[in-house]
Specification:
single chain, about 450 residues, alpha+beta, 16-stranded mixed β-sheet, nine-stranded antiparallel β-sheet, globular, transmembrane, transmembrane helix, YycH, YycH/YycI_2
Length: about 450
């Protein structure tokens, strides 16, 4: 019996010692990660086009022009990203003290607006005021979710506070937003930018643009502008696939340089000649969201999150409230660029849970090379030619801007990963909702 008890004691001691040793090993275990070939880690390293989160929202969800009205003197500019940050920065992070909805059937006028001094922020698209106040200006206000605008007028009230007048695209409604902040800082920034502005004119095209707050504003005598030759690098298609597909894809080659990639959740087509890439998320089950209050910030965060705006000045340019599609367009020197093949666009549609449709050219611009200087017609010359063109209904003209027309002619002597394009300054006219290049009195 004593022998059995002795053996039990030895076994119990050994078990206790083994437990102590195992516990010590667990506490001090450090796995060697240097040689691990992890698919997940590879994906996380490749799911970016450029530096993630490199764009600021006020530079992407931004006005295409800033116009200052001082009595009969009107000046404006096509703002750079730095200028946008200065101006919009003065409007951010303020409390809203009052919101007032002003509505008119037509011939909109704003009696409480200081007609002698105000600033206009013009957008090429309409968007919910709740989105701009909340996401861009970081201000909380109770605003009707369905109210959309494409122009904001910044003024100061008799107490010296900032006032924003958001005007609807049809120029029939206004939402007045009064802030607790004083207008001093905003006015100081605008005075600083005054020397960089050029003379602008006020254009009336129909009954909805006859008030000072609803005129079309455009450069009176545009300064001579240089053409540019842009050299593009190609973004690897594997990078886009890694961003958009959750797992491995099946590759199916097609005709004329077209390749299809697909798996259980999505399908993408890529044309190696045009460099155009189109992805569709099959898991969204043919659904897209037309709720711009969620679509605009969601698409911005998604594209920005994988570096889609990196090193390029992309800005929101169009919102399609029926299909839910947003178009982000490439800008150069503060001016929009236009390409007939949409090679300068990022077209994206948001679904119920994530990205639904994504289209872009896999091109990334490098430093533009300066070309020849071009003189542009005065805005009065353009206006007169359009008004006297019997093939056009001048009342359908809603915007007149300077942009760059891209003549996309790849240089055959370049290596495969490069493309050359010439960007030529041109008047662009928004007519009946679409954009056209102005050439000798016609819309091309």
């Amino acid at each position: 019996m004593k022998s059995k008890e002795h053996i039990k004691s030895i076994i119990l001691f050994l078990l206790v010692m083994m437990s102590v040793v195992l516990t010590f090993m667990v506490w001090n275990f450090s796995p060697d990660l240097n040689n691990i070939d992890s698919t997940d880690s590879k994906k996380s390293n490749t799911k970016t086009i450029g530096k993630p989160m490199s764009a600021n929202i006020e530079n992407v969800i931004a006005p295409y022009q800033i116009v200052e009205v001082k009595g009969d003197k009107v000046k404006g500019l096509a703002p750079s990203r730095a200028q946008l940050s200065q101006v919009i920065g003065t409007l951010k992070n303020h409390e809203v003290s009052k919101v007032e909805h002003i509505q008119r059937d037509y011939n909109l006028n704003i009696p409480m607006l200081n007609d002698h001094h105000f600033t206009v922020l013009d957008f090429t698209y309409d968007m919910p005021l709740t989105t701009y106040l909340g996401q861009v200006l970081n201000s909380s206000a109770k605003v009707p979710k369905n109210f959309k605008f494409n122009r904001i007028i910044v003024s100061q009230n008799p107490k010296g506070n900032l006032e924003l007048f958001a005007i609807s695209e049809d120029r029939h409604e206004v939402m007045k937003v009064t802030m607790t902040a004083k207008a001093n800082h905003f006015i100081k920034v605008m005075d600083h930018l005054n020397n960089e502005m050029q003379k602008y004119s006020e254009v009336i095209t129909n009954k909805d643009t006859i008030d000072k707050a609803t005129h079309i504003f455009a450069p009176s005598h545009p300064k001579d502008m240089r053409s540019y030759r842009m050299v593009y690098d190609t973004i690897p298609v594997e990078t886009m696939n890694a961003i958009l597909f959750d797992d491995s894809v099946i590759i199916r080659s097609g005709k004329s340089g077209s390749t299809t990639y697909n798996n259980n959740t999505g399908v993408a087509n890529y044309n190696d000649e045009s460099k155009k890439y189109h992805y569709k998320n099959l898991s969204e089950d043919e659904s897209s969201s037309s709720d711009m209050d969620s679509t605009i910030p969601s698409t911005f965060e998604y594209i920005n999150g994988h570096g889609g705006f990196f090193n390029d000045d992309f800005r929101l340019f169009n919102t399609d409230n029926s299909s839910g599609e947003l178009t982000y367009q490439l800008f150069l020197n503060g001016y929009p660029t236009f390409n007939d093949q949409q090679l300068n666009d990022i077209e994206v549609t948001w679904g119920d849970k994530g990205i639904y449709d994504y289209k872009r050219a896999l091109l990334r611009s490098s430093v533009p090379l300066e070309g020849e200087t071009k003189s542009l017609d005065s805005v009065e010359s353009v206006r007169s030619s359009l008004a006297n063109n019997h093939n056009l209904d001048f009342e359908k003209v809603t915007n007149m801007v300077i942009g760059y027309k891209e003549d996309d002619r790849p240089d055959k002597d370049d290596i495969e990963v490069q493309r050359n394009s010439e960007l030529v300054p041109t008047w662009y006219i928004q007519y009946d909702g679409d954009w056209y290049a102005y050439e000798d009195g016609r819309l091309e």
